[in-house]
Amino acid sequence: MRILLVEDEVRLAAEVARFLRDSGMAVDLAAEGIDALHLAQTEPYDAIVLDLGLPGMDGLSVLKTLRGRSVNTAVLILTARDRFADKAAGFRAGADDYLTKPFQLEELLLRLQALVRRAAGHARPEIRIGPIALDTTTGVATLDEMPVRLTALERRVLTYLMLHPGRTISRTELSEHIYENDQDRDFNSLEVIVSRLRKKFGRTRIETSRGEGYRLTDETT
Question: What is 126-216's CATH number?
């Protein structure tokens, strides 16, 4: 999952980004509203964490502008504003969730995971595709109930494919959701990651459509 974190407090932004990355997410950072607006309109994020008190363009204006331009990415407002009126304004502007500071990093992670999962049509934390299961809250994957060790990038690829089972995911789409904005998006490296996943879960479970991309199936080896 790829997240846009919009926060102007440098230390807090670094702490949250580190925690989310350690939890298996790709994270891009923005400290100003106008930068957040640009990134949110040009990059395909799975969710946005948005502070309200931003320099220049405030977070509420960013959110209203995004929704007015039909950007439907899930938005979790993260702010110190805890009055009901502020929460109501956030939801009316198009927020999907609202978390006030101070907060627990684990709660932020769980809320983000739930937003992304539900946006893809999954209500339960565990996703099962044939003999493969993924606990989206812990990142633990199993094959026939046996844990499978994954690298961070392998987990990101598997998670995205499992969130969209049966659909062919282009290499471009997949790379846009597993790499951060400043990382090289190398299709050869992506093919290596997919090849490693095939060795761990079975060669026939991730199909390659020539010129199109990858599709996760429930086929047996």
Answer: 1.10.10.10
Q: What is the pLDDT of residues 25-44, one digit of tens each?
A: 999 999 999 999 999 999 99
Condensed to tens digits (0 to 9), the pLDDT of residues 153-185 reads: 999 999 999 999 888 999 999 999 999 987 777
Return the domain boundaries, the chain.
2-119, 126-216
Amino acid at 135: D
Q: Is the pTM of this model over 0.85?
A: yes
The phi and psi torsions of 213 (rounded to 5 degrees) equal 155, -145
Residues 6+ apart with CB under 8 A from 104: none
The CATH class that applies to domain 2-119 reads alpha beta
- Is the CA virtual torsion 205, 210, 211, 212 positive or negative? negative
Q: Are 5 and 13 in contact (CB under 8 A)?
A: yes
* Pair 177, 2: CB distance under 8 Å: yes
